[in-house]
Amino acid sequence: MRLVPVLRNLVRTHRLERAAPDRLDAERRRLLVRLVRHAQADVPRYRELIAPETAAAFRGPEDLPSLPVLDRAEFHERAPEELLAAGFTPANTKAGTTSGSSGIPITIRNSERDLGYLRASYLYDMLAAGLRPWDRMAYFRVTPFLRHPLERFGLLRTFHIDTSATLDEQVGAFLAARPTFLVGFPHVIASVVEELERRGVRYRGARRVLFGGERLTPTARTRVLGHLGARCHEVYASVEVFTIARTCRRGSLHLRAADVVVELEQEDGSVVPADGSREAEGEILVTRLHSEAMPLIRYRLGDRVTVGPADCGCGRHTPVVLRVQGRSQDRFRDLGGREFYADFLTYAVQGFPEVSRMQLVQRRPAQVTVRVVLAAGAEAAPVTERIAAAVREAVPGFDVEVEAVRAIAPEANGKIRIVKVEPAATV
């Protein structure tokens, strides 16, 4: 791994973290214009999609609606050579493959320059979350990271907690690592904490927890942090576009406005910029400003998000992600065939302090099954009855079932889908 590009990008990120709005705007415009012209000139597929005169006239984010939306099907169906810029091939780039939570796993290819930005982004995420060079980092994930070169000096020591292993094996690896800094899916870390509590083991060595990849109920979050005695931060990121947003010291999830441009697509197909001028909700379209080998412009990530004004008092002048909702594909259907995003129902459930984890599943139109893992000591019958009443009030006419379960199984990628539509429900 080349350290110079990482350090250069790290310095740049720190310099722009609290930059004034006009400076951020100038940086975004510079990078965006360069990206669009690079894509049109050097990428075969973009030469088909973007006319030379369109690229020449492009001036900034306000011109993005003149460009086509890039769907993940493009990556799934097309040969890499159609999407790679001139001079790049599968042989001289590094691949990153998505988890496939959308049902369409794709592979993104990065140049060494792209990877310098990626590594700096992830390192800055951890530094912003309170990482210290002498911390012992536990990564909860299926595959391990490459060993960091600084580990030979006793710095940034990394320990892999294999989330495909049994819970006993995960707990054993966790205790052997004695981590002070934890990174991973919230529900995986919560499972380890619950098992420690069941065994009567109190682990107080962790200082910080960096959550990412999914939501955790307030009850479960409080339990994890209470047991560990740690503070938490959160990131919103993906394999394709790296870090989209990270929390500040006040807990607000700020867009990384110097590195990505975000638009929100509405139900009617119109698009509004997530520029912090007002609250807006829609399906997220992301343009990754640092994508040399395989440019990503107006990429449909598959999430639905709500972005609010840039009014946090932490000193950053960037919009705040208020909610990251379920995958856009996970839309419930009523008897009339009308589809709607069901993420709002989760708030009717997570408000119950007895609920540790949850999942909403639709098996047929106008039906929803709510699976809940209850906190220790909670009586199932009265709680599930109250949850059912709250959900019925939110979706009148729906057949609502509430199941108290011991655990909620994650998908093959290790994540728990909070809102899930089974195939029969779409028929």
Describe the structure.
InterPro entries: ANL_N_sf, CapK_Type1_Caps_Biosynth. It comes from Streptomyces nanshensis. This is Phenylacetate--CoA ligase family protein. This protein folds into two domains: 3-119 and 235-327, ANL, N-terminal domain (Rossmann fold, 3-Layer(aba) Sandwich); 331-426, 2-Layer Sandwich (GMP Synthetase, Chain A, domain 3), CATH 3.30.300. It has twelve helices and 20 strands. A twelve-stranded mixed β-sheet has the order 4-3-5-6-7-8-9-14-13-12-10-11, with helices on both faces. A four-stranded mixed β-sheet has the order 19-18-17-20. It starts with a helix and ends in a 6-residue tail after the last strand. The protein has 427 residues and is an alpha/beta fold.
CATH class division of the largest domain: Alpha Beta
Structural class: alpha/beta
End-to-end Cα distance, whole Å, is: 49 Å
The CATH topology assignment of the largest domain is: Rossmann fold
CA gyration radius, whole angstroms? 22 Å
Protein name: Phenylacetate--CoA ligase family protein
Organism: Streptomyces nanshensis
InterPro entries: ANL_N_sf, CapK_Type1_Caps_Biosynth
Output the keywords.
single chain; 427 residues; alpha/beta; Rossmann fold; GMP Synthetase, Chain A, domain 3; 2 domains; twelve-stranded mixed beta sheet; four-stranded mixed beta sheet; 12 helices; 31% helix; 27% strand; ANL_N_sf; CapK_Type1_Caps_Biosynth; Phenylacetate--CoA ligase family protein
